[in-house]
User: Fold this.
Amino acid sequence: MTSSIVSVSKETRVFPPPGEFAAAARVGSLEAYTAMYRRSIDDPAGFWGEQAAELFWFDAPKTIRQWDPPKARWFEGGTTNLAYNCLDRHVAAGAGDRTALIWEGEPGEVRRVSYAELLRETCRCADALRKLGIAAGDRVVIYMGMVPEAVIAMLACARIGAVHSVIFGGFASDAVRDRVNDAGAKLIITQDGAWRRGKIVPLWDNVEHALRSCPSVEHTVVLRRTGNPITLSPGRDVEWTDALATASSQLEAVPLPAEHPLFILYTSGTTGKPKGVMHTTGGYMVGAHVTTKYVFDLHDDDIYWCTADIGWVTGHSYIVYGPLCNRATVLMYEGAPNHPDVDRLWEMIARHRVTIFYTAPTAIRAFIRWGDEHPRKHDLSSLRLLGSVGEPINPEAWMWYRDVIGGGRCPIVDTWWQTETGAIMMAPLPGAIAAKPGSCTLPFFGIVPKILRQDGTEAAPNEGGFLVIEQPWPSMLRTVWGDDERFRETYFSRFPGKYFTGDGARRDPDGYFWVMGRVDDVVNVAGHRLGTAEIESVLVAHPDVAEAAVVGRPDELKGQALVAFVTLKAGRAPTDAVREALAEHVSAEIGKFARPDSIRFADALPKTRSGKIMRRLLGELATGQAPRGDVTTLEDISVLAALRGDDE
Ligand code: PRX
Assistant:
């Protein structure tokens, strides 16, 4: 890690909430935000107890918060059910006919699912899972595309207390296998295939291949979506429609202790093995609920659209659990933003009269590249709020988003958070907090972020440092699945007793936070957080490769692009064919999104005397800079000269 982090941003523009927006907002002034924030910090038990009381509990929580770092427990003594809060609660309140999901398939079909129907389907799926032997605490992997059944599968698990682990449909077979095995999943819910840019992603083939080395899996449930031919094994595999045909549409939600595990979601860390971030029921529920309500300022007539995939945490918290808990109407889209054409999303916003739109900077940069004429062709006047998540948004992209998509009238909520945090941690409440392009502004209720120096002292205003969170919050991860020690080591050892985010940031004199990105060996490619070590271990597994180091370099479109430095085994020639084969190998093993943008061959990699690859130097080489700073620990300085000369 670098000892200090230099911020180069000179952004000074400020955009206060538009008056009309603030007048109708849930939190309509900075004073109102500040008062609520103060209360949440001064009396966390009082504040969170009240927030929790807005939801349904079979037994009310007795102790709101327990904090024995690094272990937090929230809402102890309470029993609840997240699916009940997302479905039954609204149906019981008379909102069964309200539309929960407006789903649009990539080929163009539209399906509306009411809250009552979503409840019935969730019950049937939950009952089918039970009949396949799934009980509370069992792990279920969901490896699907963006279809309503994926939401139903998640809610069905939550209903019976099964722990879901959704695996992004872009992951390849080996990545699925590793995650299934780490979670010890008993069942996989998947599809014959998923539509993506007019082509079929062969989800079932990937599962079937993975199943050869997944001993814990007893059954699969397979949804027919694309109609591509698949072969199922009777006794092990069952079709979704068959499994649900005989299942009950009225299955009571199981009362679960607040700390009952809700889901595991794998995310990248600095070692090759992905981390199974574990969230629990009560705290996650309250966090997702409250942040959705205030950050997106949800009102009854909103049509809310988050373009994330449910395979990432954004999809969990802000397509499924947060919005449904708030009785929102959620637009869900199956396919690619540029299919059949690059104006697909704008055409959909106009047709469905979307009011809230939440996407990622990488997507915004692609929209900019595709051209203003595409959004300008469509009537985007229904929009009233825009959101951004996944990586720092560059001010120019922010301004484009505001002007071209938001017509200069919609506030933008730049939301900073992580898989581990479960819910949004910093964002401008859109009716209360003035935005600055590129800043996630101020903390959400109950969140105490600090910027620390290497030695643990607090950084001065505008001084870059390490972003930590000082107090526990309800939706924080509880552990790394099966590895408490890794949990402690990763998040709580750098600054004892404080949660270390892995991000570098600064705080300006107004108290606004500016997140600069990761400080560890993790890169953020197109909003997907990837551990460089994971890609390296895949490269090294290729028969031609002796050693590999992967670094990120800034990329206009994707945030960061991957550059792989590769040393081949003796006798192997560094040809374009090998380069292509290695890129393909990474795509096949991890997924296309992890395919390196550039592969450079080298006779040796720069290492410290203790044998650690000096990624900092490689990063500088990858960005075309002359290596700066300390090279005294470099084992063999000539390696560096050779690498510099070996540009593609
Ligand atoms: O580096 C930060 C960046 O994304 C990381 C978290 O990635 P992941 O767990 O995959 O979750 C992504 C969706 C929540 C963070 O450590 N990041 C996320 N949102 C922002 C951001 N960086 C700057 N600004 C943001 N709004």
The chain has three domains: 1-72+288-520, 82-98+115-254, 542-644. The chain has 20 helices and 30 strands. The two ends are 28 Å apart (CA to CA).
